[in-house]
Amino acid sequence: MAHIGSVVLKVADARRAAEFWTRTLDYELVNGPIGDESPVLAPKDGNGPTITLDEDDRTHLDLHVTGEAALRAEVERLIGLGAVRVPWTYPPGAGFVVLADTEGNAFCVVDTGQN
C-alpha cells in the first residue's frame, strides 16, 4: 500500500519557501542547492514526508511505492476506490502515474525503487 512520500507545494519563490518551511518544520534541504528545479526538504529526524518545492507544478501529494509491480497494483487499487487517470504526457521510463481523487485533486503514485 502507498504512503505519503512527499507533499509537492507550488511556490513562486523556491528560496523564500525553503527558508520558511525549513525553519517552520525543522526540516533541511536534501536535494541540491536552492534554485534547483524542485528543491526537496526533509525532516532532520528522518520521520515524516518530504516537501518538494516546485515553481511550475500545482500542489499535490506524491504517494510512494517500491517496484513496478507495486506501482501497477496500487494504481489499479486506487482506481477501484474511485480515482481516475489524468491525461498526462509522460517522459520515457517514467516511474510514476498521475491520478485524480474523487474530488478532482491530482496526485502521483511514484515508484521509489527506480533509479
From TrEMBL:
Residues 6-110 form the Glyoxalase-like domain. Gene3D superfamilies: 2,3-Dihydroxybiphenyl 1,2-Dioxygenase, domain 1. InterPro entries: Glyas_Bleomycin-R_OHBP_Dase, Glyoxalase_6. This is Glyoxalase-like domain-containing protein.
